[in-house]
Structures are given as C-alpha cells and as structure tokens.
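User: My instructor asked us to take a sequence, write out its structure as tokens, and then describe one feature of it. I'm not sure where to start. Here is the sequence I was given:
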Amino acid sequence: MSNEYRIDTIAVHAGGTNDPLTGAVVPPIYQTTTYAQDELGGSPRWCYSRTGNPTRAALESALAALEGGRHGLAFASGIAAANAVLQTLSTGDHVVASRDLYGGCYRLFTKVFARFGVRFALVDATRTSEVVSALRPETRLVWLETPSNPLLRITDLRAVCSAVRRAAGPGVRILVDNTFATPVFQRPLELGADLVLHSTTKYIGGHCDVIGGGLITRDERLHADLRFLQNATGAIPGPQDCFLLLRGIRTLPLRVERHARNALRVANRLEADPEITRVTYPGLESHPQHALARAQSSGFGAIVSVELGGGVERVRALTSRLRLWPLAESLGGVRSLLCHPATMTHASVEPDARARVGITDALLRLSVGLEDPDDLADDFLAAVRATRRPLVHEGVPS
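Assistant: Let's start with the prediction itself. The structure tokens for your sequence are:
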C-alpha cells in the first residue's frame, strides 16, 4: 500500500483488497494445503501452503506497508523470524548485538548458533562508539533492540546506522527489533535499518491469542534470501493465525496509543510512591534518554519496568496479592501482564550476565493494557503496601 497514506489508514486497508472471487472486504481464511495447477512444470503463484497462502500473503503485505517496506515475511513466531535471519549467516561470520535484549534471542545466539561457528559481540548499543568499535572484517549483521527488553534503553538508530555504514559499508546489514515501539511510534527502515523484526504475538496481534513473527525489508536480495529460508525451513504461520494477526492490525494504532497513554499514567503514579525503588519508562522525564526517545519516536510504548526492594521473596509476595496483573510471559495484549524477567523471559541468561546488564531479581516488567490506568495503579500500589518488608518478615497479613 502506498506510503502516501498515514498509519491509521494503512492499518485499516493494507493487505485487505476485496476478495476477487466474492468481493469480501475481509481477506478469507484459505484453509488449504495445496492448489490445483493448470500444467506440468508451470510456475503458478499458489502451489503449496508452506510456500505461499493467500491469507498469509495479505498479512505479509500489511506488515510491509506498516513499516514502509517493500517486502514482508510472516513466521510462526518471533523467534522463528529471528532464526531465519541468523540462517543467512555462515560459519565464521560475526554479529554485533545489543547487550540488553530479549532472553530468547540471547539463548538463540549463545546456545544454538554459537555452536555452528557464528560469533557474537554483545555491546551497549546506547553508545554508538561501542557498536562501531565491535565491528570486525567478518561482521555481517548488527542486531539492535530499542526500546530494549526489559530495561527500556534507547538506541539512537539514525546515529548507529549512519556510523556502521561509514565504518563497514553495505556488507553489514542492520536489523532492528521493533516489537516494543511498533510501527505506529517508530519506523526503523526510515532511520537507516535494512531489516525490521517483530514478534507479531505482541502488539500486532494484540489480544494474547495468536503466536507469530514478521520480517520487513526494502532490500530485494535480502528478501529473496529470507523467502528461500522461509520456504526451505517451513516455520510458517497457518492461515487462521494470519487471519487473527490481520484482524489485530486493523486496530493497532488505536490500541497502542491508548496503551501508551495508560502506561504514562501508571508510570507517573508508581514513580511518586516512595515504596518503589525505581520506575523506568521512556516517557518519564527521569528516563536518562527521554529526549532521544521523544526525538526518535512519536510515542513511548506501553512497557514500564519497576524495581522493588526485597528481591525475589518480595516479588513472590506481591504477585500473590495482585488482582489485575496476572504473572505471565509475553506482552502487548489488551489485558495487563506482569513478568519477572530473572525467572521468566531472561531465565536462560546466566546470572552473572544478567547482573552485568542490570537485570536484578527485584526487577518487574509491566505490560500496561487497556484497563483504566488508575485501577491498574491502585491495584499495584496496594500490593506494594501490603508487602512492605516488615510485614513480610513478620508474616503479618495485609
């Protein structure tokens, strides 16, 4: 869909051309594995649903339009999309990646692809000079995540992309995981990236009812390489999943704007409470990179990180008292969720590595949903007050 339109229009119309058979305004679910072909040795658009499916094609077109790309690719999960990118590499290749990133990607880097001779340098990507200093002649990929998961650090995408281009030329591709910001608030291709990654499970789907991943690029050769891997390795979503993700896209701007507004309200309420050690949210003026976040993005997202005194035991006591914040993996759904990274999303990261990054046992990641933000804040703060250390230590009920 043409980039002449704004994001609200793109979200409603992209990938949604009227069905040529029936005129249906919603892309149908093509629940089929294979397609009849007219001739032997032909090149039909549709032949087998691992290779291509009309419902998936509609989703891929919509993902590309959202990010201002030419090509979109849908995968069975975000980590399947990440895996496809790493499969473009060879033994001896080198990757420079954000040190503060999703634990599943860290696991994929260090426990899977490192075994096949791909080497990784994990750096503080908020320091452009550190990214550039880590580049080697064999570097083929720079992997960035901003805001980062779960510490919400901001990488200056324009500065890093420009510096990497000057230092390494076109032989190094730059990937940005845009899951937290979404294309509503940030479009990395316009800031110099080659490739955008999404866990479409999160805000793209938006309802905690479908798993998926996506890749978007403007690069013809990169798209061809990834399309080959998508077909060859087969980690594709089914048509029902694609239909649900397309449905989520239609309301994406409305949802994430409300998510972000709620998150700012919750963050402000929590930051004002003396019981909470630290609140991190890019929309707060106390965030050390607030000005960069404001300049680079049109919104601050809906993830708030909180640190409490008392460590894991305090967290355990707090989660048992919450009514509106279920303890759960994932994020980006209409319902608020609370995650303890050290034992959940980043449990695969070694304790010393977590400590170096700053992921403490007291850290909580809040995915702020679409409930009333004051109800959310009231519920969380009531649990905080009920788990003051003297009460927990003495076993006095709240």
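For the description part of your assignment, you could build on this observation: Residues 391-398 have pLDDT under 50 and may be disordered. Try explaining in your own words what that tells you about the chain.
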